[in-house]
Specification:
The protein has one domain (8-126). It contains no helices and seven strands. It has strands at 17-21, 27-31, 48-59, 65-76, 81-92, 104-114, 120-126. A five-stranded antiparallel sheet has the order 3-4-5-6-7, with no helix packed on it.
Length: 130
């Protein structure tokens, strides 16, 4: 079912997968094209639809660093619920990287929340920086 609120172009911005650390045994690749609502667990990418993107930036006191949260609201046709995929970037402004507009993303983790950001569904993993 096609909804006019869907913004399929957002899939171009969302990485297809994240990595989960397995200690000394390496890492596991986790698909970000699945529903993260605990009662659903649908892995059918065609039933997921991005709706909108929000960005929040918080300055870390006493440091030249900030935390940037990029939240994508996604609808799942399987369970008829919405959830957020949240990409949390720790940015160190003291280190300059010419390739990334002068900012150095030290770490980027991914987690999921409900549509109102009241319930955290847990950390999914981290994004491999280029």
């Amino acid at each position: 079912m096609k909804n006019s609120n869907y913004n399929t172009e957002l899939w171009d911005e969302i990485p297809p997968y994240a990595f989960m650390a397995l200690g000394r045994r390496g890492r596991e690749q986790i698909s970000l094209r699945e529903c993260f609502v605990p009662s659903c667990n649908s892995t059918d990418e065609d039933k997921l639809h991005p709706i909108k993107k929000e960005i929040e930036t918080t300055q870390i006191p006493d440091k030249n660093a900030q935390i940037k949260k990029v939240k994508y609201l996604i609808h799942c046709d399987e369970c008829s619920n919405d959830f957020h995929l949240v990409f949390e970037q720790y940015i160190n402004n003291e280190v300059r990287n010419e390739d990334d507009e002068g900012l150095d993303i030290v770490m980027e983790k991914v987690f999921a929340t409900d549509s109102e950001n009241k319930e955290n569904y847990g950390e999914i993993g981290f994004i491999q920086q280029k």
